[in-house]
Amino acid sequence: MDWMEIAVHTTTMGADVVSEVLMNAGAVGTMIEDRYDVTSSKKSDGMWDMIDEDVLAGMSEDVLVKAYFHSDASAQEALMLVRARLDDIARMNMGFDIGSLAIDNRNVQEQDWAENWKKYYKPFRAGAHLVIKPSWEPYDAQAGDLVLELDPGMAFGTGTHETTFMCMEQLEKYVTKGCRAIDVGCGSGILALAAAKLGAGDVLAIDLDGLAVKVAQENAEKNGLTGCVRVVHGDLLQKTQEKADVIVANIIADVICALCGPAKQHLLLGGTFICSGIIREREEDVQRALAEAGYTVCNRLEKGSWVCLAARL
After folding, report:
1. Can you give the pTM of this predicted structure?
2. pLDDT tens across 246-284, in order?
3. For the segment 92-102, what is each residue's pLDDT rounded down to a tens digit?
4. CATH domain 2-117 topology
5. Taking Cα atoms as reference points, which of 18, 13, 31 lies closest to residue 115?
6. Which value, in Å, is the radius of gyration of the alpha carbons in the chain?
7. d(CA 225, CA 74)
8. Which terminus of the chain, N or C, has less C-beta within 10 A?
């Protein structure tokens, strides 16, 4: 099958906005190529081999958000829709540099697309013990390694993004053997699976997106963790009465601010609320919401433009 690839030139800050535009236009998948992800990961403790050096040399100086559309009569309509929406965004004051928003498009074969992104995803270490690897890559586990097998897909979360990476570092710090954990907005399920690997006895993973629920369930099965990881469809914590020692939410600042209060009702005595997906410019808002809800921040991590906080009541 042929596909149309649309590549939009943007910035690290603009990548999520552009990705949303492309998905709303009907893309069946997106991929973000950001040199910063590569170079910063090379410098981060524990992460390695995320990308081949030859690939890095050929990457654009811009951040490229690539999306794939069925190459049929609807493709040109989708392209026009993307152009119009990006023109609207270019006229807005986003509060940050969103880049040129220039568009490249070309036709690609399905095999080219299916194999192309594999060169960007290699085994890497998150924290002291967690190791994330794709199914096609070999990895010789070292003593103490906790290996999760996870392939990139339609659901967000393979661990390479700073927000997810920092959550895994926090989980290593706060998950204890036999504890209970809740992953709010679980995406691919990576954080729920990481909690289980770290020794949590019971993990509830929740997501509003039906595809994410399906992917997270499949990933739990692939890693042999269905015995302690339960994946359910739900809107944040609205449909559960369960309590946990650790609640982790890798979402966005606005949602975290709204979640601070309700999360209190689901934390066991001495429990920890880990929240990420916080762009640095919004950290003050989240810190204020946590304080007003009665939390004290006990650990803060920062990578790139992102912040992850761990807080206790």
Report:
1. 0.69
2. 999 998 888 999 999 999 999 999 999 999 988 888 999
3. 888 889 999 99
4. Alpha-Beta Plaits (3.30.70)
5. 31
6. 20
7. 41
8. N
* Contact indicator for 37, 20 with CB cutoff of 8 Å: no
Pick the CATH number of 161-312 from 3.40.50.150, 3.30.559.10, 3.40.50.300, 3.40.190.10: 3.40.50.150
The pair of three-digit structure tokens given for residue 169, joined into one six-digit string: 């570092």
Q: What is the pLDDT of residue 99?
A: 93
Non-local (6+) Cβ contacts of 108 within 8 A are 2, 3, 4, 5, 68
Q: Please tell me the distance from the alpha carbon of residue 127 to that of residue 130, in angstroms, as a whole number.
A: 6
Q: Where are the domains of the chain?
A: 2-117, 161-312
Question: Nearest CA to 128 among 205, 212, 47?
Answer: 47
Q: How many angstroms separate the CA atoms of 147 and 16, rounded?
A: 28
